[in-house]
Amino acid sequence: QVQLVESGGGFVQAGGSLRLSCAATGRAFINYDMGWFRQAPGKEREFVATLWTGGGSTWYADFVDSVKGRFTVSGDNAKNTVYLQMNSLKVEDTAVYYCAASSRFGRAGARASRYNYWGQGTQVTVSS
C-alpha cells in the first residue's frame, strides 16, 4: 500500500512561484508513474504533469500545454519524494493540486483513471 502526502501549497501573487512536494510512504516509487493533477472550483480534475523512470535512474516528464515552460517536475528516489516546481504562476493556476501514483502496467500519462493512489490535495491560490 502506498500513501501520498502533498505539501507546499499556499497563497502567492501572480508571477510568483511555489514548489509542491509529494512524499510517498509504504513502498519505493521508482517503478511507479507519478502524476500531478489539479481541480479548480466548479471544474473537473485536470492533468498537470506526469513523471516516470521506468525503473531506471532518469526521470522523464510530460506536461499539459498550459503549464509548459512554467512548471517543472523532479524526483528524489532517496527521499521517495517528487516535486512540482511552479513558476510564473497565473490566477488560473488556482486549484487544489493532487499527487497520484500508478503501479499499473503501462504508462499512466494524463489519464486520472490509470492512477491507483492519490494524495489528499494541497490548495494553491494565486492572486492578481
Describe this structure in words.
- The protein is mostly beta strands and 128 residues long.
- It contains no helices and 11 strands.
- The strands form 2 sheets. Strands 2, 4, 5, 6, 9, 10 and 11 form a 7-stranded mixed beta sheet that branches. A 4-stranded antiparallel beta sheet has the order 1-3-8-7, with no helix packed on it.
**What class would the helix/strand composition place it in?**
mainly beta
Mean pLDDT reading: 93
Helical fraction equals under 10%
- Unreliable segments (pLDDT under 50, ≥5 consecutive)? none
Topology:
Layout: E1 3-7, E2 10-13, E3 18-25, E4 33-39, E5 46-52, E6 60-63, E7 71-76, E8 81-86, E9 95-102, E10 117-118, E11 122-127
Parallel strand pairs: 2-11
Antiparallel strand pairs: 1-3, 3-8, 4-5, 4-9, 5-6, 7-8, 9-10, 9-11
